[in-house]
Amino acid sequence: MAIAKAERLMNLALCLLGTRRPLSKRELRESIEAYLEAGSDDSFNRMFERDKDDLRELGLVIETVENLDGEIGYLARRDSNRLPPITLDAEEAAALGLAAKVWQQARLAGAASGALQKLRAAGLPEEVDPYEAHGALEPRIPVHEAAFEPLMLACRDRRPVVFDYRKASAARPEPRHVEPWALECWRGHWYLAGFDRDRGAERVFRLSRITGKVRSRGTGFTAPVPDVVTVRETVASWAGEIADRSALIRLRSGAGYPLRAKATKVRELDDGWDELEIPYGHGLDAWLVEFGPDVVVLEPAELRADVVDRLRAVAKG
Fold first, then answer.
1. What does pTM read for this prediction?
2. pLDDT tens, 21-43?
3. Other Cβ atoms closer than 10 A to 206
4. Peptide bond into 175 cis (omega under 30)
């Protein structure tokens, strides 16, 4: 559906840009196949008005002209819609070239390559090689999750989605109804930030924990989208990276080296255990569970209770 609309908008833009005189709605309807397939005049008029508004929102300057007979026509003059020449220095060109190389998926790689060609057509000199200055850099953004592309499109089109999600502490996935805002890669993993309709609040989902297909559910968001979606900061907070207090744990000697790296204090005990003071933030309980019997939480009490609850949930399977 999204592709069909994009094609319709492109056809309308080409018609408006390619004419030397204003075209009436009747002429536009006869020239664009999607408009010919409209069931009624009312359906066509609603579709045309929406498309015209969408093109204007995208930046196309569309003029409305009334002829001597009182008929309304539309056109988009080329001189009003021509981009100014683009001048890039070597470093800017290199940055754009590296950005185009980041995506390895065929679909996104084609889009990035096409964008680079458009920049060349708009003024980027052919003799400037955007890869040459930093040829040793080979950026990669790996995307192995099948959920990435449908979620990317849903974020772009502002479409609510439904998917099955397995939390770290749960044995089975649960359905989640989400209004997707943005995707971001953080520490080698992709995350989705959005509004969880069932919980009535912002949530962040790790794509590797999404099971099955991502399905679209209706149109329109019920919650406002933030002006800036800080996925990385939200993920860092939920992952315990942002800590506002300390926790005291016992850790088996020779185990839990990631925990030792974060410890602010370490005290060796005589019974094969060490006592560590580590930063405590949201999500620390999920991380501690991964170390199983090598970790015992001493304080605070709420952290100990959260870890015990997670271990019981895993044991129940």
1. 0.48
2. 889 988 998 888 888 888 788 88
3. 19
4. no
